[in-house]
């Protein structure tokens, strides 16, 4: 049985997660993720000042205070980097720590003064997802809906601005206005998100969903969609964890789930993940070794006019690493490209064809470099050694045609199998 | 006497942070300093659970280990996963801090630590936590620890000045000279974590960041020489510790936060000075140019 309070908190946190993920995608793409961290810390003085001025703890008073302070912090960061040689990361750190210090000075002053009921003022910055009031959640839902709606409305302009600010300035887009819009959205997202996870962890809500999503797609629409999905799922998980184990804090668990999702994507993402890139590299390495072994056998048999090659002769021919050679021979035996002949090994029909193709590509490329690029014939070997494993059949046919069905390479060695290209 | 101890603690923290901050800023790693100051939390909690005390060798080792772990994770995300550097910093420190907070709540019965304590610290209690030998008080423990920290940093600075100098300004060149830039990098990270841990009891994590970046940034505006930068940022740090103490009295507010605010005020003045000076200077240069033309 779900209780109504839980549903409120779930809805609130899910929307907060969605809002900050959407904004996070844009700050991530502008490589300004840590600005979110600075804004989060800078809200404190605004909140406390608003309380000191109006003596009220209503969210409708504190929230605008937070917005103004967040805005000032962004202005200060761009002012410092614009008018001095200080680098952006230092400017962010300065604004973050000084604004926060001002906030604590005000907060401690309030706590020692005669301001009546100031208790709980600091929950604004340390987060209290589980005890959010329905009225506060209403405000956050409103703010996040406005936020997501604005991004929908200005999507094409924001897209252009984020990817190429110079170009968008050149074609006459109001760049300053767009910058203002994005900053305002960031401040709004942070000011609502901070309630769920607190000041320090707010940065994660902005940065982590976008960073994780970036590993799955190159399209902006998909990026936003995946980031929102990750943000919402993590928020819901965090709330559920602290609901089932009430002593557990909601914010840190949201961030924990987010981080685990992110690390999982870094490792296992199908295209850009660490694992898939490692496997791809390994596959290339295997292919290269196999082709080099076949090629070496081709050269040896052509020179000696014997079908079979001894293992020692082969391993000395290219100084193969013993283990790599063994593994490669095993693979080639299995794929029927070589066969045993007594103690020696010989190329099969299939193996011979593949070896001849590699030699053909090597010599074609040497010829191409020599003829078309005017590179001296004693400088073309190393380049060809690398490209012979990469050229596709289509490219091969193009090369043969372009070079006029050549019979020999710059070193007067025969290019095998050219005849089959003539039709 | 207590007032003296408080100001001395603040000044020691300020000087220690200033020494490290100069190098962090030059290496464009100011936010890495911020990240480490948060990410040592789990190290502190784990060490606390093992040793059951706040000022122990365990705590220093645990925190230093997590500081180095933080910078290794950032490197890992950046190099192996090819994530952009700002995002890898952000993900790393929030994750470790979240783990720290979860550990604190999970073992809340055993740990006399909380999020607020890590963020604010409390310099006002420093004089009462004295170091006793027999019946004689040797003064506040924090003073001894921070002085030790200062001596370690000073020795490291004197011994490693050339290495730090070269690796901070031109890493590629230093590698060309055969200097192991990685060693200096991790040594600096370990020093940052050590200093953060020793300081967080008195000024808290975020105010450590203020002391790490603000005085060196002001010095960076005022000087182009490394040795001058070190001296100026140390002086600004001490100045903000002293003035912050009196401002705290005036404002009736937290002493350490007032010290950080006063560092911020000094920075603002230096910033305004350089901007105005450049404007005036540029104008005279242009008018001189025109005059020489006529």
3D architecture notes:
The complex is a heterodimer of chains A (423) and B (294). Chain A has a 3-stranded antiparallel sheet. The mean pLDDT of chain A is 87. In chain A, 72% of the residues lie in helices and 2% in strands. Chain A folds into 3 domains: 4-270, Orthogonal Bundle (ABC transporter involved in vitamin B12 uptake, BtuC), CATH 1.10.3470.10; 276-347, Arc Repressor Mutant, subunit A (Orthogonal Bundle), CATH 1.10.10; 352-421, Diphtheria Toxin Repressor, domain 2, CATH 1.10.60. Chain A is an all-alpha fold and 423 residues long. Chain B has 294 residues and is mainly alpha-helical. Chain B has a single domain (2-209), classed as ABC transporter involved in vitamin B12 uptake, BtuC (Orthogonal Bundle). Chain B is 81% helix and 3% strand. Chain B has 12 helices and 2 strands. In chain B, strands 1-2 form a two-stranded antiparallel sheet. The chains are: A mainly alpha (423), B mainly alpha (294). Chains A and B meet through helix 2, helix 4, helix 10 and helix 12 of A and helix 2, helix 5, helix 6, helix 10 and helix 12 of B.
For the largest beta-sheet of chain B, the strand count, sense and barrel status come to:
2 strands, antiparallel
- Share of β-strand residues of chain B: under 5%
Overall pLDDT level of chain A: 87
Strand tally of chain A: 3
The largest sheet of chain A is: 3 strands, antiparallel
Question: Could you state the CATH homologous superfamily of the largest domain in chain A?
Answer: ABC transporter involved in vitamin B12 uptake, BtuC
CATH topology of chain B: ABC transporter involved in vitamin B12 uptake, BtuC
Mean pLDDT of chain B: 84
How far apart, in Å, are the first and last alpha carbons of chain B? Answer: 67 Å
Number of helices of chain A: 18
CATH-level-4 superfamily name of chain B: ABC transporter involved in vitamin B12 uptake, BtuC
Q: In sequence order, what are the helices and strands of chain B, one letter per element?
A: HHHHHHEEHHHHHH
Number of strands of chain B: 2
Catalogue the unreliable spans of chain B: none
Helix segment tally of chain B:
12
What does the oligomeric state look like here? heterodimer
CA radius of gyration of chain B: 21 Å
């Amino acid at each position: 049985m779900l209780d109504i309070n839980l549903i409120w908190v779930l809805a609130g946190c899910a929307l907060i997660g969605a809002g900050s993920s959407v904004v996070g995608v844009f700050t991530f793409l502008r490589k300004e993720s840590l600005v979110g961290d600075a804004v989060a810390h800078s809200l404190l003085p605004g909140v406390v000042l608003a309380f000191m001025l109006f003596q009220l703890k209503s969210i409708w008073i504190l929230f605008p205070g937070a917005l103004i302070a967040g805005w000032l912090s962004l202005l200060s960061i761009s002012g410092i980097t614009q008018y001095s040689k200080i680098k952006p990361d230092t400017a962010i750190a300065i604004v973050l720590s000084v604004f926060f210090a001002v906030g604590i000075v005000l907060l401690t002053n309030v706590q020692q003064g005669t301001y009546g009921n100031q208790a709980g003022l600091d929950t604004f910055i340390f987060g209290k997802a589980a005890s959010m009031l329905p009225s506060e959640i209403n405000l956050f839902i409103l703010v996040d809906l406005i936020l997501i709606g604005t991004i929908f409305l200005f999507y094409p302009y924001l897209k252009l601005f984020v990817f190429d600010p110079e170009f968008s300035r050149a074609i006459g887009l109001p760049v300053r206005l767009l910058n203002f819009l994005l900053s305002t959205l960031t401040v709004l997202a942070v000011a609502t998100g901070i309630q769920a996870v607190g000041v320090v962890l707010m940065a994660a809500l902005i940065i982590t969903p976008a960073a994780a999503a970036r590993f799955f797609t190159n399209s902006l629409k998909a990026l936003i969609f995946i980031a929102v999905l990750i943000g919402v799922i993590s928020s819901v998980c965090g709330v559920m964890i602290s609901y089932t184990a009430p002593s557990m804090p909601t914010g840190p668990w949201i961030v924990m789930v987010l981080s685990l999702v992110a690390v999982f994507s870094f490792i296992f993402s199908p295209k850009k993940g660490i694992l898939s890139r490692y496997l791809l590299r390994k596959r290339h390495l295997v292919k290269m070794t196999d082709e080099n072994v076949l090629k070496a056998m081709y050269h040896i048999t052509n020179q000696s006019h014997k079908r079979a090659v001894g293992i020692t002769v082969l391993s000395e021919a290219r100084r193969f690493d013993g283990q790599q050679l063994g593994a490669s021979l095993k693979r080639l035996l299995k794929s029927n490209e070589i066969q045993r002949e007594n103690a020696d090994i010989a190329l099969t029909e299939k193996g011979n064809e593949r070896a001849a193709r590699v030699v053909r590509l090597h010599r074609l490329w040497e010829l191409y470099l020599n003829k078309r690029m005017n590179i001296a014939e004693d400088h073309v070997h190393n380049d060809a050694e690398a490209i012979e494993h990469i050229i596709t059949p289509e490219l091969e046919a193009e090369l043969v045609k372009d070079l006029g069905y050549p019979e020999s390479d710059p070193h007067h060695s025969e290019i095998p199998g050219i005849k089959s290209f003539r039709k | 006497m207590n007032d003296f101890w408080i100001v001395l603690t603040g000044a020691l923290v300020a000087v220690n942070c200033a020494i490290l901050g100069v190098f962090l800023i030059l290496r464009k790693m100011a936010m890495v300093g911020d990240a480490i100051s948060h990410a040592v939390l789990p190290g502190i909690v784990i060490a606390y659970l093992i040793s059951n005390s706040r000022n122990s060798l365990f705590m220093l080792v645990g925190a230093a280990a997590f500081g180095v772990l933080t910078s290794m994770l950032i490197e890992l995300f950046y190099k192996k996963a090819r994530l952009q550097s700002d995002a890898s910093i952000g993900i790393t420190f929030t994750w470790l801090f979240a783990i720290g907070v979860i550990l604190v709540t999970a073992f809340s019965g055993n740990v006399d630590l909380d999020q607020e304590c890590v963020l604010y610290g409390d310099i006002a209690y420093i004089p009462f936590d004295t170091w006793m030998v027999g019946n004689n008080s040797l003064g506040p423990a924090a003073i001894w620890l921070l002085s030790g920290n200062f001596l370690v940093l000073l020795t490291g600075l004197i011994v490693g000045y050339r290495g730090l100098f070269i690796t901070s300004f031109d890493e590629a060149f230093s590698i060309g000279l055969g200097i192991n830039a990685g060693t200096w990098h991790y040594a600096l990270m370990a020093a940052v974590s050590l200093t953060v841990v020793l300081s967080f009891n008195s000024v808290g994590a975020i105010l450590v960041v203020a002391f790490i970046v603000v005085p060196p940034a002001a010095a960076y505006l005022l000087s182009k020489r490394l040795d001058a930068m070190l001296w100026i940022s140390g002086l600004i740090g001490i100045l903000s510790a002293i003035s912050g103490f009196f401002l705290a009295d005036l404002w009736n507010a937290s002493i350490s936060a007032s010290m950080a605010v006063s560092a911020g005020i000094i920075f603002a003045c230096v910033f305004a000075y350089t901007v105005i000076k450049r404007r005036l200077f540029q104008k005279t240069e242009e008018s001189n140019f025109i005059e020489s033309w006529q």
